[in-house]
Write a structure and sequence with these properties.
single chain; mainly alpha; 6 helices; globular
């Protein structure tokens, strides 16, 4: 419930992952951890109303997710993470009153969740997320 305190912890976490990833760029865990840290910072800044900062962190998150997925296309978690990163970019674009950008990001998330839902029909989260993003696209 204390966003300022959470922000401080997430900033500290991010600094650690940035240092670890800089020292060991071949370590996928450090790269993934850094991506998650950027996502946490983006979400916290969005909750605080700092949309420009949130966008910056979500763009960093997306860039790392793109790279992770490109390197490990068979990794379902990385593909889902990529879909989530596009969804978060869509949310921020929508809040910034940029409906065309929002729709484009949401459509990219939708495409990944279509593929995941088709490949893993028993995994309910993918179908649920697909339904959510489709409703958001319709509202735009």
């Amino acid at each position: 419930g204390n966003l300022d305190k959470a922000l401080t912890f997430f900033e500290d976490e991010t600094e650690l992952f940035e240092a670890l990833y800089a020292s060991y760029p071949q370590n996928v865990g450090f790269k993934n951890g850094l991506a998650i840290s950027y996502s946490k910072l983006g979400s916290t800044h969005a909750s605080l109303g700092n949309l420009d900062k949130a966008l910056t962190f979500f763009e960093e998150y997306n860039e790392l997710r793109e790279s992770l997925y490109a390197s490990y296309p068979q990794n379902v978690g990385f593909k889902n993470g990529l879909a989530i990163s596009y969804y978060k970019l869509g949310q921020i674009s929508k809040k910034r009153k940029e409906p065309l950008k929002a729709k484009s990001h949401y459509q990219q998330a939708e495409q990944h969740w279509i593929e995941l839902a088709d490949a893993f029909p028993a995994y309910v989260e993918f179908s649920r997320n697909l339904g959510i993003v489709r409703r958001v696209i319709e509202e735009l």
